[in-house]
Specification:
The protein starts with a helix and ends with a helix. The chain contains 16 helices and no strands. The chain is an all-alpha fold and 435 residues long. The radius of gyration is 23 Å and the shape is globular.
Length: 435
Amino acid sequence: LHHDGIQLIAKSGVTRSLLSFANTYTQEEARYLSSHLGANGNASLNPPTTLCGHLSLLIVLLASNLSIPDRLALSFDSYQLLSAYSRAGERLLQSYPSDIDLTKKFIETMCFTYSSIKKSSGSSGIDNSSLGTLSWDSTISGLERSILCLTYQLSAYPFPNPLLPPLPMGLVQVEKIHSSQMRNISVNIASEKTWWDSIPIFNPNDLPLPNPSTGSADAAIYQRSSLSQTAWSEGKYKLANSSAKCLEVSIMFLMSRVHFFNQKNAFKFSFDAVAIAKGLCRCSDASRAIEERLHVMKSHPEDNITKMLNASHVFDRSLGYNVSESHAMELERNYLVELGSSLGNCAEKLTCLALQDARRMMANLTSMSESGSSYNQSTQELAYFCGAITPALEHTQIETKGVGCAFTDNDKDSSKAMAQALRKELEKMTSLLRK
């Protein structure tokens, strides 16, 4: 849209119309959920059909170069609209991957809204007390928590569990110790369900492709597969790519929220260090393994390709597949480039998120009295954070290698610098804990 057109739409009161519809929907939603229909476990309440279009319009407006007052007014309207749709958003996030595109668009809208508020908060002439009131809207806190939980799931399981490499033992031990301290809660990590388990049976006509490199020891060569439920395919590549992009937007939202609400001294929104560390390991491992695989495909395009494709049953004519070697290899390469780049971006953003949280904890601790109970609780939080993030940094080696599939030196240098800054914060924490 032309800039003048954006300005015109922003000033036309269109967001008030969107908010009016959202409030009407919310009232009908409340009546439905309180009725016998809403109590029926077999009934499914879907988001309004207009939601996708409304969110798309908000994203375009929020991403535009508006004046500060116009952007702030738009951000306030968008925040209220998201609050009105909070229950619908929670259902959408919790039913992932039922509608990946709409879920991603919902999170994008939240990300742009919070980013716009953050940009406006540092401007002269803006009443910061009015900005702070947004942080206390309890109706949206459940929505934020759902995004956090989805981030944990998507980052820990970029691929189905059988394809994932093991996590560093130091991180695994921290998780076990933390679980063992929950005396009244029974936790069985081995039987944990992942978002991949919620996917319906894939199309049997879906084109099989070699398993992607995920970070295991044989990352640069073909990982053995069969026609089991873990066998890879073009459809699974599309799903993994869509989810990696959704993960990237989710992390960006969490970063925007931490930055803005810390500035406003609002209630804390803490992250689980083990979950962040697991996601960092998985995304970093996969992006670097994919980078190695792409190098192999570029330098030796003929190596192992026939064996790989035969093992993936691409050439099994009895199954109805009729694909040339070159076409199958080109498909795999294109999907790997897209997936590796997204997961590399996620690894860098998770590093940034951990760095933000480390600085938040250190700032809180230095402002406390050492004799108080809050101080002891904060030191325990620090120890947990160090115990989880330190083995993740050592495992990924982002400080010296950067993230995988960063196709320019500047991209690698950026992730290295962020990891090095995180290491310095960990050293400060360790020194403080030793006192």
